[in-house]
């Protein structure tokens, strides 16, 4: 059985919305980059909503000068796009999951493979948190306070989270890994 993981960059005040480029200002370091690469490399499925998918497809799909491995991973990984309007994803290895996406994801999860990661896609993440399909939440907490903006858990049912890992990086960011407890 595969693991469904929500991975988000998040501010110290809980904001996941990146409308003012806070993520770029938060900074990075080789240890953080290595942790992000390890998370990426442990997955063979990528789950996103249509808006996030289209942005990533248009940015990463044609990119040829990327040395981070993100482009190669995104072009190779199986992508699952939750959408009621998209019919032709226009990016290799992409499957559109329509109105029955929850049942479809349950079937995909029960099949062979490794992690299925959902990142960005705030509305989809919230919808996932209202199901029993999410196994783990990985939060890369950035040393930046946004003050306002969309928060990951707004409008979701109460969740009990069991800590799995807490790791601090030289940039001031910290990885918080949690297992969702039923």
Automatic annotation (TrEMBL):
GO terms for biological process: riboflavin biosynthetic process. It comes from the Bacteria. PANTHER family: 2,5-DIAMINO-6-RIBOSYLAMINO-4(3H)-PYRIMIDINONE 5'-PHOSPHATE REDUCTASE, DIHYDROFOLATE REDUCTASE FAMILY PROTEIN (AFU_ORTHOLOGUE AFUA_8G06820). Residues 2-173 form the Bacterial bifunctional deaminase-reductase C-terminal domain. This is Dihydrofolate reductase. It comes from Rhodococcoides kroppenstedtii. GO terms for molecular function: 5-amino-6-(5-phosphoribosylamino)uracil reductase activity.
């Amino acid at each position: 059985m595969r693991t469904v993981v929500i991975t988000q960059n998040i501010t110290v005040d809980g904001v996941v919305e990146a409308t003012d480029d806070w993520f770029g200002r938060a900074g990075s370091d080789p240890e953080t980059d290595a942790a992000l690469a390890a998370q990426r490399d442990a997955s063979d499925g990528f789950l996103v909503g249509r808006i996030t998918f289209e942005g990533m497809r248009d940015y990463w799909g044609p990119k040829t000068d990327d040395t981070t491995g993100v482009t190669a991973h995104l072009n190779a990984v199986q992508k699952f796009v939750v959408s009621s309007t998209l019919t032709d994803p226009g990016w290799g290895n992409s499957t559109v999951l329509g109105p029955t996406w929850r049942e479809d994801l349950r079937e995909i999860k029960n099949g062979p493979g490794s992690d299925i990661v959902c990142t960005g896609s705030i509305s989809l993440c919230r919808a996932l948190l209202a199901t029993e399909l999410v196994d783990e939440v990985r939060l890369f907490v950035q040393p930046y306070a946004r003050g306002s903006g969309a928060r990951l858990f707004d409008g979701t049912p109460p969740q009990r989270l069991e800590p799995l890992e807490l790791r601090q990086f030289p940039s001031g960011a910290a990885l918080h890994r949690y297992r969702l407890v039923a």
